[in-house]
């Protein structure tokens, strides 16, 4: 956030763009250290009701697809920042990925070519590489969730 400019960074969701978890993972891949990822989704109408303008501006994650969905919300003042926080708190679309889940998703995004490995901080890559047992557990949990989802779709 640039309070002196009255801007805050956001990413828009569309049917053809990256999903909210993909955006969260790309943002996590921008960090220097491995950490949890938390986010909420706010409807476009709520942003308009707060009185903020949307200014498309390329993001700075290691994912070009995610960067294309970046916008700045402009016209931020103390009251509109408060309204934005309240909109997030009222959102029924709050999500969280634990640190090792983030590591698995970053690895998968690198392997799939969705994230540019060369743009990731060395410390973050080292943390993912040194993940050992917690990383293996998170990967196994993801595999089990995916298998359960596939089985649920089978008639």
Labels describing this entry:
alpha+beta; 155 residues; 49% helix; three-stranded antiparallel β-sheet; globular
Brief summary of the model shown:
The chain is α+β, with helices and mostly antiparallel strands. The protein is built from seven helices and five strands; from the N terminus they run βαβαβαβαβααα. It has one domain.
Give the topology, please:
Layout: E1 7-11, H1 20-28, E2 37-40, H2 44-50, E3 53-56, H3 64-67, E4 70-74, H4 78-90, E5 94-97, H5 99-111, H6 122-129, H7 132-153
Antiparallel strand pairs: 1-4, 2-5, 3-4
Question: Could you characterize the architecture of this molecule?
Answer:
- The protein has one domain (7-153).
- The protein is built from 7 helices and 5 strands.
- The chain has helices at residues 20-28, 44-50, 64-67, 78-90, 99-111, 122-129, 132-153, and strands at residues 7-11, 37-40, 53-56, 70-74, 94-97.
- The protein has a 3-stranded antiparallel beta sheet with strand order 1-4-3, with no helix packed on it. The chain has a two-stranded antiparallel ribbon with strand order 2-5.
- Helix 1 (20-28) packs across helix 5 (99-111) and helix 5 (99-111) packs across helix 7 (132-153).
- The protein is globular and about 45 Å long.
- The mean pLDDT is 91.
Helix content: 40-55%
Distance from first to last alpha carbon: 48 Å
Rg from alpha-carbon coordinates? 17 Å
- Beta-strand content: 5-15%
> Could you give the count of β-strands?
5
**Separate helix tally:** 7
Oligomer: single chain
Query: Which ranges are low-confidence, i.e. pLDDT below 50, for 5 or more consecutive residues?
Result: none
The topology string of helices and strands comes to EHEHEHEHEHHH
**What is the domain total for the residues?**
1
Net shape = globular
Query: What structural class should be given to the helix and strand makeup?
Result: alpha+beta
Average pLDDT, to the nearest integer? 91
Lateral strand order in the biggest sheet: 1-4-3
Largest sheet: 3 strands, antiparallel
């Amino acid at each position: 956030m640039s309070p002196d400019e009255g801007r805050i960074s956001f990413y828009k969701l569309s049917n053809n763009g990256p999903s909210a978890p993909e955006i969260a993972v790309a943002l996590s891949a921008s960090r220097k250290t491995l950490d949890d990822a938390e986010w909420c989704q706010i409807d476009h109408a709520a942003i308009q009701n707060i009185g903020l303008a949307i200014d498309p501006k390329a993001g700075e994650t290691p994912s070009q697809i995610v960067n294309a969905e970046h916008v700045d919300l402009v016209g931020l003042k103390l009251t509109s920042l408060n309204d934005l926080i309240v909109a997030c708190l009222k959102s029924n679309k709050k999500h969280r990925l634990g640190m090792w889940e983030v590591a698995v998703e970053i690895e998968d995004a690198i392997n799939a070519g969705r994230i540019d490995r060369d743009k990731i901080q060395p410390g973050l890559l080292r943390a993912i590489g040194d993940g050992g047992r917690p990383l293996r557990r998170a990967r196994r949990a993801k595999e089990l969730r995916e298998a359960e989802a596939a089985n649920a779709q089978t008639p």
